[in-house]
């Protein structure tokens, strides 16, 4: 991640860049701020910049070997620690990890990489728990985890000038793991940087707080947030944008949440979720009938709008499911649903579903009776969602 990929925070970016130019990089720093203001992205971009071998004016180059490995999150000298829990028996189809005891970050490293790519470096804790399927349990950073990390950092850097450990949400450490981290900060191995990314400093040991240099990450500037949202959601009107920005308080996640709730697309989303659930569930013919009755009463344009929306969700699911996370353009509420739904859409059934939806749009334009059209479509959908990818 480069500084240019981060929304706003210009003053802070300059400060971090100058610390490198003036060769006064503190070995333990804490990026502290509430909400989704880009603090993890900043820590990441800072680490990438420090290790970039061909720095450009005020940013990392993005193309040197170090940058490429950083952006793929595969650099051997880059370490992450983040809250996890057991997820065995959960319904998630996203996480490949099935952990039944002693969970550590390493178990979920692939999920973490995908999740960071999906959220463009703006992770939210609740979504993360959904993503890895720990569901209603709280995540934590265990003492085994802290010990693992300390052990890993004892070795010489494989390639980079600095080894970097980024700890996301150190608040989730208990006292034992926090004390292990403290020792690491007090007696760091050579050329090792530790960046904590935290929200609530009250939940951290005072001894840790006194040992790290704290970088307060403020909310994103309104103007920058507005520009970012305008690019991401071009359909938003000026007044809507102004309202959202004023409510969001410099928090990307909050802004997306507001957009999700206020948007007229919400109705299509609710219909879509209900439809997919009914189609997937066995013995829900009555439910499908009621749903079809409701949709049949809509005007033609609204029906077409809904089917077009469904087409988009199927396409996004396919992209999400095949790992093209960065291509996915979806809103927050959609993201949360699609994380669970996407695995049911694959290369076998997606083309048929898309063809059926296209055909239905075509027929609506030609005044085919909506009740039978949506009934047929639902029954086909029901079979297609249960189609096995290998069949
Ligand atoms: Zn570079």
Describe this structure in words.
It is a single chain. This protein is an alpha/beta fold and 391 residues long. The protein has 3 domains: 3-216, Rossmann fold (3-Layer(aba) Sandwich); 222-262; 265-385. 52% of the residues lie in helices and 7% in strands. A 5-stranded parallel beta sheet has the order 2-3-4-1-5, sandwiched between helices. Helix 10 (238-248) crosses helix 11. It is elongated and about 75 Å long. The relative contact order is 0.11. The mean pLDDT is 91. Residues 52-54, 60-61, 64, 66-67 line the site of zinc ion.
Please provide a brief summary of the model.
This protein has 391 residues and is of the alpha/beta class.
Q: Tell me the number of helical segments per DSSP (H or I, 4 or more residues long).
A: 17
Based on CA inertia axes, which overall geometry fits?
Answer: elongated
CATH architecture of the largest domain: 3-Layer(aba) Sandwich
Strand order of the largest sheet: 2-3-4-1-5
Q: How can the largest sheet be summarized?
A: 5 strands, parallel
Alpha carbon gap, first and last residue = 40 Å
The overall average pLDDT, rounded, is: 91
Number of domains: 3
- Low-pLDDT segments, ≥5 res: none
Oligomer: single chain
**DSSP strand content:** 5-15%
Ions, cofactors and other ligands present here are:
zinc ion
What integer value in Å does the Rg equal?
24 Å
CATH topology name of the largest domain: Rossmann fold
Question: Could you name the CATH class of the largest domain?
Answer: Alpha Beta
